[in-house]
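Field: sequence (string)
Field: structure_tokens (string)

Example rows 1 and 2, in order.
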Amino acid sequence: MKILIIEDETELAKSIAEYLSEENYLCEFATTFTEAMNKIGTFYYDCIVLDIMLPDGNGLEILKEIKKQNKQDGVIIVSAKNALDDRINGLQMGADDYLTKPFHLSELMARIYSIIRRKQFNNSNIVKQNELEIDILAKTVSINNQSIALTKKEFDLLLYFIGNKNKVISKSTLAEHLSGDFADMLDNHDFVYAHVKNLKKKLNDAGCEHYLKTVYGTGYKWEANG
């Protein structure tokens, strides 16, 4: 899961990223209004942590742009205690949640998790598709009630595919999801093929139906009814 942290307090942004990284979130940074606008115009994020007080602009304008582009990124507004009007305006403009500074990192993570779960998995901690069951909190996968071992990247890929079921996802999109900004610096996306190949093999060897399809020349698609 990919998170964009828009925050001009460098130490706070680093602390958030370090905490979230422990839970297998891929974190990117934007410390200015301009940098944030460039990133949201180029990349997709599962959730954006948005400080509305930036040195070169108002974070609410970033929120307006997200909604103008009809992007589905979750947004949590971070604001000072005395910025009640900004928080209300942000929620009315489409933000999903808000936190006031200072806050506990565990609380922020819980809010991020709740937003992603609500948007992608119908507010459930357990994702089921026939013989396949995923416990998002415990980060476990079972097929026909038998656990299988996945790496962090494979687990993340599996959730990403199911969260975007019946959509064709290109290799470049998967590379961006797994590697963030670094994807543009890579000579090729062979690592995506390797991760997908390993995931497919583990699922199929455990008796899972062939939901993950290769769309030749384009990318991959997770096929599911309903």
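Row 2 begins here:
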Amino acid sequence: MYAIITEPTFYFVAIPSVILLGLSKGGFAGLGIASTPLLALYLPPLEAAALILPILITQDAISVYVYRRDWDSWNLKVMLPGAFAGMAIGWLLASHLSDALVRIIIGVIGLAFVANTWLRRNQIEQHKATVTSGVIWGGVSGFTSFMTQGGGPPFQVHVLPQRLPKLVLVGTTTIFFAIINVLKIGPYFLLAQFTAKNFVTSLLLLPIAVLANFAGIWLVRVTPTGIFYQIAYVLLFLVSLLLLWQGVKAVI
């Protein structure tokens, strides 16, 4: 039998991390971005991303089934090609680009988007997105998701202003990240980020993550649409601020 991670410090950050992942996969997408940074307090960031990947894929399977009828095909068609390119770039740069820089990039993008929206209230109203926007933000999301499992803010920059129906937004997010998470398996193996010890530890954490997943699904369904979008913007602001602070702190 393979050993597992036994240090209490790890579980102090890992358990909140998988709970946030579960709530995120249930529909509150902004929460999940904090998971890898939490685990990165204990593990190297890319290894932390690889450790939670089996959990993510299991949660994706649950959420895709729940939201299988609620998704927007146009957004997936324009964002996924960009995401594939962004993941390929992340794969090529994984051993050269610092995690601090990636966090700064994600944080700046998210904060700039939220600030622009809050300062110009009319942008909260629905507006039509473009193919160019979808490809670009899909690419940024694929890149940051590959590096830190932090693809949420760039994805939301493109999707949130469209004011999609609540369940359609959640379903589109779920399917988008389910596809790119499966595609990470090969590159992570080739980058030697999977270990037997981490994989067994992932299985140990899985029941907690699944319970949190169902809690997130329930919360999304009972939360009014207006409040849901307000929560989404606030979460995006908070996690972007956290990532920016972590990145800058690591540099100075």
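free_text_note (row 2): The radius of gyration is 17 Å.
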